[in-house]
Amino acid sequence: xxxxxxxxxxxxxxxxxxxxxxxxxxxxxxxxxxxxxxxxxxxxxxxxxxxxxxxxxxxxxxxxxxxxxxxxxxxxxxxxxxxxxxxxxxxxxxxxxxxxxxxxxxx
Length: 107
What we know:
Layout: E1 5-7, H1 12-17, E2 23-28, H2 33-49, E3 54-59, H3 64-69, E4 77-82, E5 85-91, H4 96-106
Parallel strand pairs: 1-3, 2-3
Antiparallel strand pairs: 2-4, 4-5
């Protein structure tokens, strides 16, 4: 991981819900092929838009409590949080343009 950051059940509140800027959370799993496809796109977007949005990754197998709390049923699920609330969400691998639009809609 480069421009993105890993979050856990333990630091989700401080790193995501209490963030002063929007946060895109990538709910993912090691075994998920579409997750591996989305990951480099998120790295690119984090590098390009890091001043406006924070992009974090939460491994659902290692952090089941947060995934359960937000009813993540499939991976990847990409959710934008703003002001501590989920405001936009998509499930499944998406092209970079769709991911950028998802973020921009929440800015």
